[in-house]
């Protein structure tokens, strides 16, 4: 089988090799059959619909149609065509199939010789070497041979035209296919491959893959089938498997140019530029200059990325990894993991975690793949171990480091990480055991040993801060909390512990600030809400401000006097005041919802004013329509909503509670 053709689907070129030159090609005109049951294109009016044929002593004639009218040698017995001089049949459809046409021609041929050619499921007709003895019309009708778009029978006897069914995947795998008057079963790998090609062109990669698997099972040594299977796997984003298929194709046929080319392009996507160059430049420079430019761009950015990583320039490493991916290495696991590592070193743990989920899966990993001196598969576990350490999952970190060490036992960098992860995990376990035994000083020393090996570990800083808190060393606890938050800004444990330390040291402004930050991260945590409330009260008292009737949570408080209303407006934090009347239907519907908000947001003061009972408050606040809700924050009105919907009211309460 020839290895030339389009880069996606292999095609059988035996038919092409058997064709003669275009010299003496007969003229032809296209038939205007106008049949509603076959997808044949109608032709302009005025064209004839007859074709000259030759009678034969055979009881029926069979032929083959493929493409437009061409000359082809006639071999074998009357009415059959072989695709080459050796007599092998070629009935596969090329990848550039066009809409089916039916043509008429006038030519000369020896007596009693029928039109020759191939009738394929595409419905295209090739007619060659004919002489005119007498003419009669060809009629679509019933017959014994199924040719994809109906049957062709000789003679003028009219018969109904029945639509032909296209060959399906199931038929290709399990049922015989009639081609050229003879039955071709699914044991013909070329026919199975042809249907697979059709599935591939439709984007049905899973169906195409099944058919290529069937073809390979029928002909295991055919390199083209392996290459086609690699194309289907690529369409399914199973790049690692596609690489293996290309390698198998080259094992079967080391000089198969199509497999070399496909493998080279896959290796560029995987970021393996050295191996890609060998396959793309097997016979010199690549035929496509764009491919060479892509290869060189990926190579340049990957080299810069590896250099920046060795220097610890993580911003540059991140930038160059992105550039290499954009240049063409879009399915490279090690470039994806390099981005994760760079984000982790830049203390962007959340971004590192989200990028880790997006790293391409190229399993099985191709052999001889390395990045920055580490085997690619080992580098994946190398970075995962660091992520697990940063998240405090020390047991998982040890397992990942062990896997990396087994995959690449010769890498010094992997060996050092394995040793570090193991020692840090032991220090953390020892510190936890001592803390549970209330031996806080010794526990702090154990955590300090872990920090000596991993000085950026927020979990260990937070654990040591807990020891200082238990020992009453508030300042040192705050310092360790600050370090933990430096490496993980959204880590709530050190933020909560620092707020508690500020409470102990009566740094009320700092405590309020910490609790407000916690409220944003934990909006439904009642303990945080209550702590914030008490810190706000303490801050107000420390400033000498008068604080009256301060209670946390509870029910909606009803206001009966202007003095009570003024005191409520001046409460620290957020106050929500609901102006209503008993008789109003909307107020009756809104009141239960306000009660539910009071329960869900315990740090906010909810008050209710009946303007029928206290008209002076309604007049002073200029309330003309009920229900009306006003929101105050630290004595200042920040929001007024007239006839609010439930959604708007809850959004406003949530917004100002943060």
TrEMBL record:
Biased composition (Gly residues): 142-159
Biased composition (Low complexity): 48-62, 94-112
Stretches forming TPR repeats: 189-222, 378-411
Entry keyword annotation includes Repeat: yes
Compositional bias annotation for Basic and acidic residues: 13-32
Compositional bias per record (Polar residues), positions renumbered to this chain: 77-93, 168-186
Protein name per the record: Thioredoxin domain-containing protein
Database matches in Gene3D superfamilies: Glutaredoxin, Tetratricopeptide repeat domain
Organism listed in the record: Brassica campestris (Field mustard)
GO biological process terms on file: response to stress
